[in-house]
Amino acid sequence: MMLNVNELSNKVIGLALNVHHALGPGLLESVYKECLFYDILEAGFLAEKEKSIPVIYKKVKLECGYRLDILVERKLVLEIKSVEALHDVHLSQMLTYLRLGEYKLGLLVNFNVVKLKYGIRRVINGYD
Fold first, then answer.
1. SS3 114
2. pTM here?
3. Count of beta carbons in the 10 Å neighbourhood of residue 64
4. Alpha carbon separation from 122 to 5, 53, 109, 119 (Å, rounded)
């Protein structure tokens, strides 16, 4: 069954909730990323971790070290955080990833919160 990006994001949010319920807040970002990546694969979704995104500058593709935390089904960008609070710089980072990769939707997921619903931010690419 082919899910649209909104349906896919809802499924991934459910998986993130499971990870948060099992582990709670306070761990390193890398732990949450690995666990969520594992659960996404176990759920049968195609996922890539640390996916490189090139920058096109003057028609030249440059590998500048931009890496998505997780890309699900080649269309949903996940940026995993374990910080005190999400800030504008995190939103800017996600918007850059969406624009460079020409993706429509991303999820900023901050696991360092008591209830994960307060740590999830949907980000839509407004550049078409």
1. coil
2. 0.92
3. 12
4. 11, 20, 9, 10
DSSP H or E run through 1: none
Structure tokens at 124: 């839509």
Tokens of 63: 């590998």
Nearest alpha-carbon partner for 123 in 68, 52, 82: 68
Name the H helices within 5-120.
Answer: 5-23, 29-42, 88-101
**72 DSSP β-pair partners:** 47, 76
- Please give the helix or strand (H or E) that residue 51 lies within, else none: strand 47-57
| Distance of alpha carbon 73 from alpha carbon 4, whole angstroms | 10
pLDDT string in tens for the chain (128-residue length): 589 999 999 999 999 999 999 999 999 999 999 999 999 999 999 999 999 888 877 888 777 778 999 999 999 999 999 999 999 999 999 999 999 899 999 999 999 999 999 999 999 997 54
Which residues are CB-neighbours of 75 under 8 A, at least 6 positions away? 5, 8, 103, 104, 105
What's the angle, vertex CA 7, arms to CA 108 and CA 72, rounded to 5?
55
